[in-house]
Amino acid sequence: MAHSQVESIRCLLIPVVEHNLLLPAGVVAEVVDYQEPDPLPDHLADQEWLLGFAGWRDQKVPLISMEAVMTGERAAPSIRARIIVLKGLGQRSQLPYFGMLTRELPRLTTLSEPTVERLDEFAPQPGIHCQVLAGGEPALLPDLEEIESQMHTVLFG
């Protein structure tokens, strides 16, 4: 007698603003200590959500603030801030990786489909796909494809 096995996925809960973002661990290349990013060129200074470029493995990756994506306002990095280096999803050769600022070290969790429930009463926010209960804890699913697309347009036209 065959029985179905519930597939689980390793995820990261990433603290931003008053929320946690939920990302599958497979899109995360590395979590590194915070470093002050290299500034943006003057013509990009009005992009509040784009913080500059962070050094990572002998390359410069664009660094974003999800707080600024969501609210339009940057939050100052905390003493426990980290940079989460994400793999680009859009197959864009100029943007294979980008960084996301987080207030502190993300938490690793393992979830399965029955432990994730989409919340319908979610008010749309920029950069956010939807809100879920992940293992009973509220979390936001970022729209990484949209964020990456905007970043590509701003940086490369």
From TrEMBL:
Residues 8-153 form the CheW-like domain. It comes from the Bacteria. InterPro entries: CheW-like_dom_sf, CheW-lke_dom. GO terms for biological process: chemotaxis; signal transduction. PROSITE patterns: CHEW. This is Protein containing CheW-like domain.
